[in-house]
Amino acid sequence: MNSPSAQIIFKETHPTNVGNTYHIISGSFRSLSLFLLVFSPLNRSLSHVQTIPAFGPHQYLFSDKGKGHVYSTSWALPPLLSSWQVETSDHPNVPWRVNHINNVPITATSSYITLPPPFTHIYSTGGPTGEVHLVDSKTGGFGDKVQQFLFVPESELESADKTRVALRYGSHGIEFSTQGHAFIPVLGTDSIEMYARDPATGQLRHLSSNASPRGHGDGPRHVKVHPNGKILYSVTEHTNFVDAYQIHETSLVYISSRPLLPPILSATLPTTSSSDPHTRSHFRGDTLMLSPSTAQNPAPCALLATTRGSTGNVRGWLSIFRLGPSGEFLDDFVRFETPTSGGKANALDVRAKEDTNGGMWILLTDDDDHAASGERGGVRVLEWDGWGKGNVSVVAQWPPRNDASQGETMLGGSHAIWLD
């Protein structure tokens, strides 16, 4: 495997004249609430709009952008999923509001949730199970459950761990291709499970188990599918790589990898002889996102991925990898050492900048103890202007340093997403 040499990127500020504001919703590992924020590119600030009473810590969030709904997982017990309605406003003096729609019980704590086109079925996965729910056509919330699929033998489900601990070893995400395939990474089996989706019922039919390229202890955690439906990307939690696969009709074929860490750090893996892959490394690969489609760049020009430090003494990393027109890795990439370890977070979301070609606003959530204590924000906005146009920079954070005056303190972020 050939990998380009690392280019280490640190903070640098870029002026902008963008006057729009963008809304963000975030969960927290240490609070039961959700938090509605607004980002001003002109003022380079994050402000608190609403604290939303919710039902459990660590909400992983998905927004059906443009339709006004948000869906979330949590670490609540007994396990559940929640849906929310977003009241938008075009008037500067009328704030947005988020209102609860409904909850549904699920079998095991879920870590990931998504609503793919044609937006009729909601999919969630976590630990030993995954579930499919209808979208209620009247409320936009959860309707009936239409399928449950398993990652343990059915005879073992009753005794299987269904708490958040199982997320370290079970299923951890689900993504769909434009060709009707679904892909679920499973950390404990070091595999990516491939399914076919029935367009009428929304149910999934298993096609194949696809082994991670480095074998036992790789820990595939999150996946994304290129819009062309031909390339799948996967982050490995335990070995800190981004892998690319070619999508075939019923299986995946491994193509190549890129390391999440600079070579000097990659050379130290693994750091212990622990039999538990989750504790073997100083770093834990986390999430990944494709750069958003724009008129200038309809195909993604970059893949963004993060890794976390395993303790508060080890800072995490954000890597941005350049992609070719067909989704292949090119040689250009940048790295940004995150302000803290990221704790259990360092999760990502991205949106395009309106004043640059290829530039992005990047959301980065932080659950490090420094963020929870108020020393540093639980949600940060990073700025990157695109290839060859400057460095990654932190431009805003919330809560502001040592400021808990805006209602309930976030106490560290778990996952934040752009709502507009």
Characterization of the model:
It holds the Pfam family Lactonase. InterPro entries: Cycloisomerase_2, Lactonase_7-beta_prop, N2O_reductase_N, WD40/YVTN_repeat-like_dom_sf. This is 6-phosphogluconolactonase. This protein is 2% helix and 43% strand. It is built from two helices and 29 strands. It has helices at 263-266, 369-372; strands spanning 8-9, 22-26, 34-40, 45-52, 61-63, 69-72, 80-87, 97-105, 112-114, 121-126, 129-135, 142-150, 175-176, 181-186, 191-197, 204-211, 220-225, 231-236, 241-247, 252-259, 283-290, 302-309, 317-323, 329-337, 348-352, 360-365, 379-384, 393-398, 416-418.
Question: Key terms for this structure?
Answer:
five-stranded mixed beta sheet; Lactonase_7-beta_prop; N2O_reductase_N; 6-phosphogluconolactonase; mainly beta; 6-phosphogluconolactonase activity; WD40/YVTN_repeat-like_dom_sf
